[in-house]
Amino acid sequence: MTVASQMLETYPADLGGIDRQKLAACIEACFECAQSCTACADACLSEEMVDQLRTCIRTNLDCADVCDTTGRVLSRHTGYDANLTRAVLEACAAACKACGDECAGHAEMHEHCRICAEACRRCQSACRELIDSLG
Amino acid sequence: MTVASQMLETYPADLGGIDRQKLAACIEACFECAQSCTACADACLSEEMVDQLRTCIRTNLDCADVCDTTGRVLSRHTGYDANLTRAVLEACAAACKACGDECAGHAEMHEHCRICAEACRRCQSACRELIDSLG
Amino acid sequence: MTVASQMLETYPADLGGIDRQKLAACIEACFECAQSCTACADACLSEEMVDQLRTCIRTNLDCADVCDTTGRVLSRHTGYDANLTRAVLEACAAACKACGDECAGHAEMHEHCRICAEACRRCQSACRELIDSLG
Amino acid sequence: MTVASQMLETYPADLGGIDRQKLAACIEACFECAQSCTACADACLSEEMVDQLRTCIRTNLDCADVCDTTGRVLSRHTGYDANLTRAVLEACAAACKACGDECAGHAEMHEHCRICAEACRRCQSACRELIDSLG
Fold it and tell me: Do residues A104 and A117 lie in contact, with contact meaning Cβ atoms separated by under 8 Å?
């Protein structure tokens, strides 16, 4: 069991009816994607053709920040606010969609973009599934 | 002129038709609110009646993270994505609304909550004005 | 292979003689600890005896922020600066030591503190090993 | 009075003998520098000669993250830990030194680097003064 799942198991109060497995999966996907996008921005920065990767770097930086914040918000359960959770998840799905599309466009040239695009897709799906489960 | 405004003035490319003054005001409000919410969460944590401030602390922590990320996203202009900007601003306005309401409820008892509620209101307004100006 | 390791494998330039396995382990430990500390602060906040967990919450919040930043700095390799890497790793080891000690003191009462203390220990060790390998 | 100063004034417990004015100045310098470095990384990314600004972008990103975390740690006073504060301030001074030097090297070519170098110098000095005052 991951640490994120263990932390959910040991939360001392009610999780407010949220789907625990989808929540754990989304938290993990957010942190994975935050790391991947931070690394991909830096890998792009070291590419010879960096001038063609400007938008990719920018989108990676945004996506890293949004995923980071989303992973933090989802790691808190005290005084749960469905409205805010939903708005943050929508922003995260949008950031992952934008970054996944951008990285996918460079995936054939750059392996780091291919790996990062997949991390973005996983995170986008995890956000979408969690949004749907909020009812 | 603030540093945030100076950085906008010296950005070497086009800002993409965004309202420069509203953008600068929103960036500054985001960083101010991120600091204020971080400090208010900690001040609440030191109050004797901390057990009645649990939701306030949690909302402060979320708002700090969302404002921080929003301030960063708004500080970038390369490869501007209106969709993502809007989604992030909506999440920020929601976080500031939730935190402003929560802090306002404790404003008569705790000066730090009163000051923080005002920072949240300013940031919420700045986000809303910027969203409206995006057209 | 984790995404962090895959991103290291596909970095297009030289990693500057850093130990790749220790680097990957440290990046992963930082993100795991950032999540764990964020969740532990929130779990403490929901405990009935929250007034006895003030220092634990504060230390968790600091440790989450420092681990987050350290994980980001370590995910970048372009223009590597050994001095800065070392200073950031020292701060991270100090934060993990403080938080691991604090959480360990509540581990018998609170399972989330026990799990979080272990994440802090792992991250502290990973930072220390990476510092030693920098030569 | 800035919001950061107001939050310090209304903190409900003892600040632990720390110099309040130096603390407020350092918190403000950290948030200002975090914003400035985020914006400078993005401005560099839009420069025609981006391939000569790789190290500058990377150092800006690191400095933004370290300043952000330092500003947050300094905004908390509950359960104050001088050791951790000092380690974080040392990392921040190192990041600001590295980024200030790097940006200064491009200051004649790029106004955003000149402005950002000044923000880094101010933050480095503020960290150094606060470290010295910790005794």
Answer: yes
Chain C residues whose beta carbon lies within 8 Å of the beta carbon of residue D94? 83-84, 87-88
Residue of chain C whose Cα is closest to the Cα of D79: C55
| D45 inside 8 A of chain C by CB | no
Contact of C18 with C105, CB cutoff 8 Å: no
pLDDT in tens, A82-113: 999 999 999 999 999 999 999 999 999 999 99
- Alpha-carbon span A50 to A28, nearest angstrom: 30
Closest C-alpha to C93, from D88, D133, D76? D88
Low-confidence ranges of chain A (pLDDT < 50): none
Rounded Cα gap, residues B58 and B72, in angstroms: 22
How many angstroms separate the CA atoms of D70 and D95, rounded?
A: 11
Tell me phi and psi for residue C27, to 5 degrees: -60, -50
CB-based contacts of B118: which residues, under 8 Å, 6+ apart? none
Amino acid at D11: Y
- CB atoms B62 and A76 under 8 Å: yes
Locate the chain A residue with the closest alpha carbon to B67. Answer: A69
CATH topology of domain C20-134: Substrate Binding Domain Of Dnak; Chain:A; Domain 2 (1.20.1270)
How far is the C-alpha of A23 from the C-alpha of A29, rounded, in Å? 10
Q: Does B47 touch chain D (CB under 8 A)?
A: yes
User: Which of B45, B51, B65 is the best residue to mutate to test the C interface, defined by the most C CB atoms within 10 Å of its own CB?
Assistant: B45
Q: Where are the domains of chain B?
A: 20-134
Amino acid at A12: P
ipTM for the predicted complex comes to 0.97
Distance CA A5, CA A28 (A): 9
Give the residue from B10, B44, B66, B96 with the most D CB atoms within 10 Å of its CB, the best one to mutate.
B10
